[in-house]
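Deliverable D2.4 — example input (structure tokens):
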């Protein structure tokens, strides 16, 4: 099984990404949640270009990737689950849960540390919200995220099959919860108890800092409810809300080259959780 995963993991992830991307893209066309003022041709080339850069960089710097590290740790008996002698099914289930918690805590950290916010804010400077926003992450943030994930995998002794399942699940839910797709409100109200929905995560992309610093979850909504970072709705409503942050609002900033240089441009602003503001919910131009 491990040999099969190492050989075919990339193909499985690519097929899952392409299939889910196609489904969500069609859904956005047939049932959009919001009318977009910027066409896809203005945003998608750079957003998808970042995906290509991120993928190539990960393959270059971490050729073994997460599944290879999990397999290596398994062979050497490293990690909590191996030390406890946990059965395979329990190790897989617990790994999926704990990896999701790690992603939530990492996300909070990216919003709390000003230097890390400089990397992460590229994700928030998209001026629209759709499935490609879910893949718009700065390459340095991707490398940091992967390093943290590898540490968690080794510490837990995560089975390789759980790593592959989690990576496919994370890609799928990231595209789903960033989708400009309309769900019936009653269905959304029920579904958001077990899964982060587009309406729930869209609040996180509001330009009000106190809304940006809420709803950090990607897969499971429980962490936001448990740690008090859950916000049900945006103050301006989903149709009236402004997507993005108060910096980099010129559409020229949607170009790939300008996106990649964002971390070293402009002030940190009022968005990091640790920033002090008389009215944390009032956006003010600071670029």
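Example output (designed residues):
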């Amino acid at each position: 099984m491990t040999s099969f995963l190492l050989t075919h993991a990339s193909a499985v992830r690519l097929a899952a990404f392409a299939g889910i991307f196609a489904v969500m893209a069609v859904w956005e066309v047939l049932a959009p949640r919001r009318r977009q003022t910027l066409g896809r041709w203005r945003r998608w080339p750079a957003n998808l270009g970042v995906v290509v850069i991120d993928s190539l960089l990960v393959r270059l710097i971490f050729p073994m990737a997460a599944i290879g590290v999990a397999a290596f740790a398994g062979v050497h008996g490293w990690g909590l689950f191996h030390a406890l002698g946990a059965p395979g099914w329990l190790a897989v289930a617990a790994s999926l849960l704990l990896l999701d918690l790690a992603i939530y805590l990492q996300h909070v950290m990216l919003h709390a540390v000003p230097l890390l916010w400089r990397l992460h804010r590229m994700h928030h400077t998209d001026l629209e919200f759709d499935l490609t926003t879910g893949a718009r992450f700065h390459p340095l943030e991707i490398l940091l995220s992967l390093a943290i994930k590898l540490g968690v995998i080794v510490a837990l002794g995560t089975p390789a099959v759980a790593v592959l399942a989690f990576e496919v699940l994370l890609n799928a839910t990231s595209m789903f919860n960033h989708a400009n797709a309309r769900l019936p409100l009653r269905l959304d109200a029920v579904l958001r108890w077990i899964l982060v929905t587009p309406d729930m995560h869209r609040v996180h992309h509001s330009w009000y800092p106190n809304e940006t610093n809420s709803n950090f979850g990607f897969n499971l909504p429980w962490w936001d409810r448990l740690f008090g970072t859950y916000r049900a709705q945006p103050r301006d409503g989903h149709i009236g809300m402004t997507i993005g942050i108060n910096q980099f609002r010129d559409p020229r900033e949607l170009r790939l080259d300008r996106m990649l240089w964002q971390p070293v441009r402009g002030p940190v602003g009022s968005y990091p959780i640790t920033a002090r503001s008389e009215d944390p919910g009032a956006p003010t131009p600071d670029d």
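The first helix runs from residue 2 to 30.
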